[in-house]
Amino acid sequence: MIDTILCVDIGTTSLKAGLITACGEVVSFCSIPFDEPHDRFIACSWYDVFLKAAGKLVQQDVQVTGVCISGNGPTVVTESGLTFCWNEDTGAVAELIPDCARSSLFIPKILSIKNQFPEVWKKHEKLFSGPEYLIYLLTGQAVTILPEERFEKAYWNDEMLEACGIRKNLLPPFVKPGDKCGLLYLDDLQQQGLSFTENCPVIAGGPDFIVALIGTGTLVSGRLCDRCGSSEGLNFCTDKVLHGEGLRILPSVIPGLWNASYLIPNSGELSEDERLAEVERGISCLKQAASEAGVQFPCEMAVTGGQTNDELLLREKSERLGMKILRPADEGNKSHFVHSELMGDACAACFGLGLHGSLQDAAAQIVRLEPYKGAV
Questions:
Q1: Where are any strands of DSSP class E within 197-231?
Q2: Among 4, 73, 221, 317, which is 20 to 30 Å from 248 by CA?
Q3: Is 20 helix (H, G, I), strand (E, B) or coil?
Q4: What is the per-residue pLDDT for 187?
């Protein structure tokens, strides 16, 4: 019997799921679109889509020893499933946010729900920061996944909540990636054909951005990752805070480290030449900021997302940047596994199950990258 982790990432329009071993082998994978991705109560469909995914992943002689959940954010979901997505406009409440809460990515969403849906606001007892709503449905336990203590300012604290008139008990307590959130309810799942171990835990993954960095091993100072889809982000892990025009600095999930990002929000709408020009500009900004901080900049970059199997794009990127391009190892398949979020979930779960001593150790064992053959 092969032990696997059931890794689940909730996107804006679909749910991705995979069975991944502690060695990083992807046993099976599926992606299931949401029927109405822009439905105001889209989170209510997550559980049914999760069950469909579980049924599609069934393999003989495979058992699930843990389930790990991640998803898009900052998204806020009420206990009734009303969903205020990460990409919705919160401008109407901008003037209501006091200075102490302006660093929060979630409070504008929470206040938008309070203002736009007062009847729902009056009735609900819990608020969830996105994927934790599915964890609640699977376990009955309410949690908030805080990537690392320094992220509190991007979430909330008592001072922010009091200043905004938000009851503290609406928001579940913080847990960390890899923490066990509760035991899986198996009644519905057993009908899907998957085999689960007794007392199977549901484990905290985190925001998709965070688990994608875990799933590319961008957890060590000097590592660089290009996460690409409809938008694109260049992410440089460093032990110093960098400063530069166009850069966003956030804590790493690893204490003591930081993530310097250059974002290309409309990457999917650009021509290939425009897109590559933006990537060059981003690399130049990161290089300059690193140089000014006395930090050595790498000569290689990991890639993930839709670009992973685009041979032409990778060749162009390698040549224009003068960098070696790394991507997930082929492992004998015809294509490279592009979903680093799920690989990051596997790392978090294996750490949480005690199979590895830290997230960094888990990533070192699970994430396998190889040079793109056309790389310089």
A1: 201-207, 224-228
A2: 317
A3: strand
A4: 83
Residue 307 binned pLDDT confidence (cut-offs 50, 70, 90): confident
* Cα distances (angstroms) measured from residue 118 to each of 14, 79, 114: 28, 14, 5
What global pTM score does this model have? 0.94
Indicate the range of 94-103, 109-118, 192-201 predicted with least confidence: 192-201
In sequence order, the β-bridge partners of residue 250 are 259
CB within 8 Å of 78: residues ≥ 6 apart: 113, 120, 121, 124, 126, 127, 128
Q: What are 3's two structure tokens?
A: 């032990």
Contact present, 204 and 352 (Cβ < 8 Å): yes
In the chain the first and final C-alpha atoms are separated, in Å, by 42
Residue 241 and residue 371: Cα distance in Å, rounded?
A: 29
Q: What are phi and psi of 72, to 5 degrees?
A: -70, 155
State the DSSP code for 300.
Answer: E
258-264 vs 83-84, strand pairing mode? unpaired
Cβ proximity of 349 and 211 under 8 Å: no
CA angle 270, 273, 277 (to 5 degrees): 90
Tell me which residue of 366, 328, 361 sits closest to 344, measured CA to CA.
366
* Residue 192 backbone dihedrals phi, psi, to 5 degrees: -85, -10
376 pLDDT above the threshold of 50: no
Look at residue 304 and tell me whether its pLDDT is greater than 50. Answer: yes
For residue 135, what pLDDT is reported?
Answer: 98
Residues 127 and 78: their CA atoms lie apart, in Å, by 5
R_g over Cα of the chain: 20
Give the model's pLDDT for residue 375: 47
Helices (H) and strands (E) in the chain, counts: 10, 19
- Say how many residues make up the chain: 376
**Which pair of tokens denotes residue 342?**
């799920």
- Counting residues of the chain whose pLDDT is more than 70, the rounded percentage is 98
User: Looking at residues 185-214, what average pLDDT do you find?
Assistant: 91
Cα distance between residue 239 and residue 366, in whole Å: 23
Residue owning tokens 């995979």: 18
